[in-house]
From TrEMBL, chain A:
It comes from Ureibacillus yapensis. It is found in: Cell membrane. PANTHER family: INNER MEMBRANE ABC TRANSPORTER, OLIGOPEPTIDE TRANSPORT SYSTEM PERMEASE PROTEIN APPB. It comes from the Bacteria. It is a multi-pass membrane protein. This is ABC transporter permease. GO terms for biological process: transmembrane transport. Belongs to the binding-protein-dependent transport system permease family. InterPro entries: BPD_transp_1_N, MetI-like, MetI-like_sf. One of its GO terms (cellular component) is plasma membrane. SUPFAM superfamilies: MetI-like. The keyword GTP-binding does not apply. PROSITE patterns: ABC_TM1. The chain crosses the membrane at residues 9-30, 99-120, 132-157, 184-206, 242-267, 287-313.
From TrEMBL, chain B:
The keyword Zinc does not apply. This is ABC transporter permease. InterPro entries: BP-dependent_transpt_permease, MetI-like, MetI-like_sf. Keywords: Cell membrane, Membrane, Transmembrane, Transmembrane helix, Transport. Belongs to the binding-protein-dependent transport system permease family. It comes from the Bacteria. PANTHER family: D,D-DIPEPTIDE TRANSPORT SYSTEM PERMEASE PROTEIN DDPC-RELATED (PTHR43386:SF1), OLIGOPEPTIDE TRANSPORT SYSTEM PERMEASE PROTEIN APPC (PTHR43386). The chain crosses the membrane at residues 33-56, 100-124, 131-152, 158-179, 267-288. GO terms for cellular component: plasma membrane. It is a multi-pass membrane protein. It comes from Ureibacillus yapensis. It holds the Pfam family BPD_transp_1.
Length: 320, 302
């Protein structure tokens, strides 16, 4: 068990290394440097050159890379040019918003997908099954931004059921119950959108898993012992089929990160995805590099999580 | 008489297993919705190209006329006009043409590269396989959408060609992985081993013997990739990191909705393009699924 985890961690290191090199090279191509954020009309160009010299921007590239990585390990990504703030603190703030949105999305996703998958598998070829298969086909085909825009138009502007912008309204005191409720209310529509879009994989997996399980020997044994089908489903089949679903969690996290760019931009939700898009538009390079690095790390962590859960659930794939 | 002839015709089917095209044809005849999707797609794609190349005058289309600002759908503009008084319907046609050309190019580039890498890795194994599979693993785990966006903003002299290459750089891995696993299992089959024993050249085995056996999977994969690429391209253009601004795309039309006023009141500016994207995605994916069923004898309807 531990061997598997340690091995997967060791595989992560070269991947992170290559990703950091790519990002560093890209960052070198971008105009501007960590001091661009300090420049005001009053700044003396000689002073900036002095600072650049001091920070070692004229050093050989590999030394610069090592220094950059060293600072990144200590959580120092420089200053944001548009926000005039420490990048780590800025991202930390946005990360909490993205975290809450992702959490609610994952909960809703599983709450929608698991019952639908079970029903489709259990009542295979019924009208209900066909409807669920059609639903999962449509949500698979529809692009994120189209559904998000239509939902925003329909439920946000036309029906006015949900707020259309932001993470919380001004005027609520942080920490009170009403503040949390208002925050939850703002997250709900983006989370529902994401949850609907992400269900396809789990529904299809669960459905085919249950259909396969029906023909298994252990199901026939249970039936021949006289256990009613209802109990065979709840005690035997579901338990076997539901466990691998846990492994989808890691991939769901990876997908959420990619989707957050669209969802947060459309719903005007101040999370990391929106920060990324606005930083790209304002050419805020220190924020961009830090965000890509963080997303890469989280995506690797997500696939690691999937592998670990898989190896707990299914002992056959553990590395000896 | 007529009955007898029909019977005879059927009999000839039984002896020889149906060929690839017959299976596909039967599958589409059985699933009327798939047949409809296929025909509708062909009509739409051919129509868009003919309309965009021969009927629409692009300069006339992109001319700004403030008198028609946000003109409602009516006699002058069938689908209304946008902020600059430009015809929405014409923009959808030109945008669809651009989006389709880009999606097709990306599908072909990633398809060809992925198939070559997949075949080589699956057939030869060894260090080539190890090397490329590590690269594929790397691409699968990195946040590719973000890196595409960063690349797009960094590249100097940004153009449609550069956009296609950047997208292709990140999107070939799925095909390579699929083809590799299929080529791996194919290369262990008896017919390949027999061919090797006869001393057939590796290149001939791969191209003349393994590749035809993978053709159905490749067609399915390319169709589904095509749908995915339309989605990614329009998505990136929507965010403003896709096509250069001078080239209209379906995504840039939808991006008009980023202005809350447009989103709320001038629905005809963004909704038709969204619906067009939606139906195109549904159609391509549905055809892809029918092809997939035809490629797998256990799932066939027909």
């Amino acid at each position: 068990m531990w061997k598997t985890i340690v091995r997967r961690f060791l595989i992560m290191i070269p991947q992170l290394f290559v990703l950091s090199v790519i990002i560093f090279v890209l960052a070198k191509f971008m105009p501007g440097d960590p001091f661009t954020g300090l420049i005001t009309p009053q700044t003396d160009p000689a002073r900036i050159a002095e600072l650049q010299e001091k920070a070692g921007l004229h050093d050989p590239v590999h030394i610069q890379y090592l220094r950059w990585m060293g600072n990144a390990f200590q959580g120092d990504f420089g200053l944001s040019y548009t926000y005039k703030r420490d990048v780590a603190a800025l991202i930390g703030e946005r990360a909490m918003n993205t975290f809450w949105l992702s959490l609610l999305s994952v909960i809703l996703l599983y709450a929608i997908a698991i019952p639908l998958g079970i029903l489709a598998g259990r009542y295979q070829n019924s009208r209900l099954d066909k409807a669920i298969v059609l639903y999962s086909f449509i949500t698979y085909a529809i692009p994120t931004f189209v559904l998000a825009l239509v939902f925003l138009f329909l439920f946000g502007y036309q029906l006015e059921w949900f707020p259309t912008k932001g993470s919380v309204e001004i005027g609520y005191e942080p920490g009170t119950l009403r503040y949390f409720w208002n925050k939850f209310y703002h997250i709900l529509l983006p989370a529902i959108t994401y949850a609907i879009l992400g269900t396809t994989g789990i529904i299809q997996y669960l459905r085919s898993e249950i259909i396969d399980a029906k023909a298994m020997d252990y199901v026939r044994t249970a039936r021949s012992k006289g256990i009613p089908m209802r109990k065979v489903y709840s005690k035997h089949i579901f338990r076997n089929s539901l466990l691998p679903i846990a492994a989808f969690l890691g991939f769901t996290i990876t997908g959420l990160l990619g989707g957050s760019i669209f969802i947060e931009t459309i719903f005007g939700y101040p999370g990391m995805g929106q920060l990324f898009v606005s930083s790209i538009s304002s050419r805020d390079y220190s924020v961009i590099t830090a965000l890509v690095m963080l997303f890469g790390f989280l995506a690797l962590l997500g696939s690691l999580l999937s592998d670990i859960i898989m190896s707990i659930v299914d002992p056959r794939i553990r590395i000896e | 008489m007529a009955k007898k002839r029909k019977y005879k015709k059927k009999k000839s089917y039984v002896n020889a297993p149906p060929t690839g095209m017959q299976v596909v044809f039967r599958e589409f005849m059985k699933d009327k919705l798939a047949l409809f999707s296929l025909l509708a797609l062909i009509v739409v794609i051919v129509g868009v190209f003919i309309w965009a190349f021969f009927i629409i005058d692009q300069q006339q289309l992109m001319r700004i006329s403030l008198r028609d600002k946000f003109g409602a759908p009516g006699e002058k503009f069938i689908l209304g006009a946008d902020q600059g008084g430009k015809d929405i319907l014409g923009q959808i046609i030109v945008g669809a043409k651009n989006s389709l050309i880009i999606a097709i190019s990306i599908t072909l580039i990633t398809g060809i590269f992925g198939i070559i890498v997949g075949l080589l890795c699956g057939y030869f194994g060894g260090w080539i396989d190890n090397l490329f599979m590590r690269i594929v693993d790397f691409f699968v785990t990195i946040p590719s959408l973000m890196l595409i966006i960063v690349f797009v903003t960094v590249v100097p002299k940004y153009s449609v060609g550069a956009f296609i290459l950047i997208m292709s750089l990140f999107l070939w891995t799925g095909t390579a992985r699929l083809i590799r696993s299929k080529a791996l299992s194919e290369s262990k089959r008896d017919y390949v081993l027999a061919s090797k024993t006869l001393g057939t050249n590796d290149f001939v085995i791969i191209v003349r013997e393994i590749l035809p056996n993978l053709s159905s999977i490749i067609i399915v994969e390319l169709t589904l990739n095509f749908a995915g690429n339309v989605g990614i391209e329009t998505g990136l253009s929507y965010l403003g990191f896709g096509l250069p601004l001078s080239t209209p795309s379906l995504g840039t039309l939808v991006a008009n909705a980023n202005n809350p006023l447009v989103l709320q009141q001038y629905w005809w500016v963004w909704l038709p393009a969204s619906i067009f994207i939606l139906f195109m995605m549904l159609g391509i994916n549905y055809v892809g699924q029918a092809l997939r069923r035809a490629a797998d004898s256990r799932q066939r309807l027909g």
